[in-house]
Amino acid sequence: MGEKNLHVANTFFNIGLAHQCKGEFALAARAYDRAIDIREKLLGRSDGGIASVMNSKANACKSTGRSGHGEAMKYYLMSLMIRKSEAEQKPEETAIVLSNMGILCREVKDHDMAIECFEDALHHIKYNKGGQDHPCVGMALNGLGNVYLEKRDFTKARMYYEASLEAKKKTVGIRHKAAARTLINLGRLRRLDGEFSGALNAFTIALETWISAVAFEDIGTANLLVDIGKVHWFSKDYAKATYCFFETSKLLTLLDIAPSHKLWGEYMKYMAKCKHKLQKHGLQPIRCDSLDRFIPYRVASEALPMV
C-alpha cells in the first residue's frame, strides 16, 4: 500500500510540473501540496523527496509574482532545512535551493541576501576547489551577475556572466537554452554599457540557440526580437529597429499573446518612437539580414510597413 501511495505522490508531483510548464501556477501549487501530504504521511518530514517537491512548490509560488513571494520563501527554507539535515548530504541539491532563494531575494531587491545565497550555493559545490562541473555553477554565477547588474556594478556583472557562460559551456554546451539566458544577460549588459556591436552579437547567438533548443514560435524568441530591436534603437539605426519590432508584433500575434502582456507594451512604445524618427528623417524600415535567416515564415515578397 505504501509503495502504491508513493506512486500517487509522484503522479501529483508530475501533474504539478505539467501545470507549472503551462503557467498554471496556482494549480501547480495545489498538486505539489497533495504530493507533500502523501510523502509526509509515508516517509516523514525529513524525506529528501519532500524537499524536492517543496522546492518546486516554492518555484510555482515565486512565479505568481509579489503576492507569492512570502509563501515561496517559506517553502525554500523548509526545503533547505531538510537538505542540510539529510544523513547523506547532497550538496548539489542544496545548491539548487540556495540559488532559487537567491533569485527570489534579487526579485524583492534584497541584494545582500541574494549575494549570500548565491555564494553559499557555490561554496556547497566547492566551486573554488575545482567543483565546476555541475549545472548549478552556471546558475549561481549568472544569478550573481544579475544582482550586480541591478546594482549597476557593470565590471562585476560582466565578470560573473562570462564565468557563468564558461561554466555552462562545460556542463550543458553553448547551444543549450541555459547558455542562451546568460548570453541574453550579457547582451543587455553590453547594451547598457554602450557596446552595441557586442550586444548585437550576444543576442544573435542567443536567438540562434533559443530557436534550436526551444522553438521559433516561443515567447522567449519574442523577447529576443525586442532586445535586438532595442540595440538598433539605441545605436540610432531606426530603420532596422522598426523591422525588429514589426517582426515582434507578428510573432506575438502568431502566439496569440494577450494584449495585456508586457511585450505588447514594449512593442507599442518603441514602434511609436521608431515611426517618429523615420518620419523625421524621411526614412523607411529596412530588412535586417542577420535576423531574416532565423524567421521561418518569411515570405520574400512580403512588404514592410510604410511609415
TrEMBL record:
Keyword annotations: Repeat, TPR repeat
Residue spans of the TPR repeats: 9-42, 138-171
Pfam families per the UniProt record, alphabetical: TPR_10 (PF13374), TPR_12 (PF13424)
Keyword Repeat: yes
Coiled-coil portions: none
Name of this protein: Uncharacterized protein
Source organism of the structure: Leptocylindrus danicus
